[in-house]
Amino acid sequence: MEPISLRTPLALLLISLAVIASVWWWLATPITLARAPIDPNAKLQCVSYTPFRGAQTPLDPTTQIPVEQIEEDLANLVKVTDCVRTYSIENGLDQVPAVAAKVGLKVMQGIWLGSNRFKNLQQIAIAIRLSKEYPNVITSLIVGNEVLLRGEMTTADLAANIRAVKAQASVPVTYADVWEYWLKNREIYDAVDFVTIHILPYWEDVPIKAKFAAAHVDDIRKRMAGAFPGKEILIGETGWPSAGRMREGALPSRTNQARVVSEILDLARREGFRVNLIEAYDQPWKRMLEGTVGGYWGLFDSVRRQVKYPPGVAISNYPAWKLYMGCGMALSAATFLAAWLTLRRRPWTPRPSAWIAVAISATTAGALVGIAADKMTYESYGVGGWLHWGVLLAAAIAAPLLSAHALIAGRSLPTFLELIGPRDYRGKGALMALLAIVMAVTTVIAAETALGFTFDPRYRDFPYASLTMAVVPFALLTMLNRPKEGVRPIAESVFAGLLAVGALYILYNEGTINWQSDWTCAMYLLLAATLWRARAAQNPG
């Protein structure tokens, strides 16, 4: 081989590794807050507590939380808070007041109301009994949580239940709901002792960016105080998710969660209002209802039960960034190696553009594989979720390796006909057949996610990282090695049209300030263009 054949890929490899290192250095840059979310010198006023771990879920009525599990959790929480808020007495949660009494915590006892009147009466009776048994622990009763928002009870029935509880309880009584529903149902104000509102900037109809979240909470609190004078306004739920999909400009992340919580708590200290954070521990079961984002509102992680943001420790969105960077560099090197081994078997001098395409593919995959793996770990829920995102990540890792081989060998991107079509379109080698499989997997998952974002987008995650890792090598391969002759395959054309139309609708529906959506749609369009340019040629003879 001529010396230039070794110097060029080696120089491009070094540039690729430098870019990957720079990207991860930037992504992992930590933030240091003036006041930590969990301040050892100033306990939290109150946090929402639900004890479910792993596969445990209140959606299964047979779930019963052992008292030992609650004891472990509350012994942990008493180090950081003076109070916990509960939502129900079912699934073993009626044990919370007794455990709280032992460890020295106060309890805002929740009463879950719904459309089942008999069950409501049971909940109310048990909660009132607990408030009398633990008068020094239970500080208030919260009669219903967002039952008006869910549309499971009329305002008149709710007010009647609240008054019935007040007639029997010796502690203050309130109702909790999203702040707009208090304004829509002002008669509830007369029935309660204090007003409990939920302000969740991420879930607002017009989502609020993290940097404006604390100011938004304060604005709403002041607005509610003006609308309901004479009674205390308790912020019964507020916080920010640490993982999940963007909503317009509202980005869930570790740094954003830490910043928002810290700023809200600082505001509460300065202006003297009460606030309850949602929530103590991440709750995996909520992902069944709210997607990935539902499971990541906790200050403690759900597995190790440890504080996410220990005091004095800088906060990064990627604590394992060194591992991700190393894996990215290894994938980049493997992509160059695949190209070099191809050249060894076919000694010729490929065009410089081929090596540049290999370098772009290697660098893109190397920079994003850590993000894709990180997303897979928190976006995969259940066997189906792990299979779905695991297959896409496997295809994303294989795409640059197989495309590097094809780029250097001068081969074009295979079509679906070469995988499942007539025999005279097949027989181009095992590696090309594998590349066709990877292409098919990527296309099918891309189309499935695009349809999901079109018809049911609210809780879906954007697969921008894995999708980019796979689509960029395909696009480069089609750009450089497109066959001069052949028919346009029908399947590719159909998928191209679906992806293009879906991407345009998603951009319209999600808005252009959601960069996760913009990025994903850009990959849909790039994949659509790649599929549209595909040509299938019959084997000679």
Briefly summarize what is shown:
The chain is an alpha/beta fold and 541 residues long. It contains 19 helices and 8 strands.
Structural descriptors:
single chain; alpha/beta; elongated; 8 strands; 541 residues; TIM Barrel
The largest pleated sheet is described as: 8 strands, parallel, barrel
- What is the CATH fold-level name of the largest domain? TIM Barrel
Count every beta strand, where a strand is a DSSP E run of 2 or more residues: 8
Task: Please give the CATH architecture of the largest domain.
Answer: Alpha-Beta Barrel
How helical, in percent, are the residues?
Answer: 55-70%
- Domain unit count: 2
Poorly predicted ranges: none
CATH superfamily grouping of the largest domain: Glycosidases
Question: Which CATH class of the largest domain?
Answer: Alpha Beta
Could you describe the 3D structure shown?
The chain is α/β, with parallel strands linked by helices. It has two domains: about 5-25 and about 320-530, no CATH class; about 35-295, Alpha-Beta Barrel (TIM Barrel). Helix content is about 55%, strand content about 5%. It contains 19 helices and eight strands. It has helices spanning about 5-25, 65-75, 95-105, 115-135, 145-150, 155-170, 180-185, 185-190, 210-225, 255-270, 285-290, 320-345, 350-380, 380-410, 415-420, 430-455, 465-480, 490-510, 515-530; strands spanning about 45-50, 85, 105-110, 140-145, 175-180, 195-200, 235-240, 275. Strand 3, helix 4 and strand 4 form a beta-alpha-beta unit. The longest helix is centred in the C-terminal third of the chain and has 28 residues, at about 350-380. The mean pLDDT is about 95.
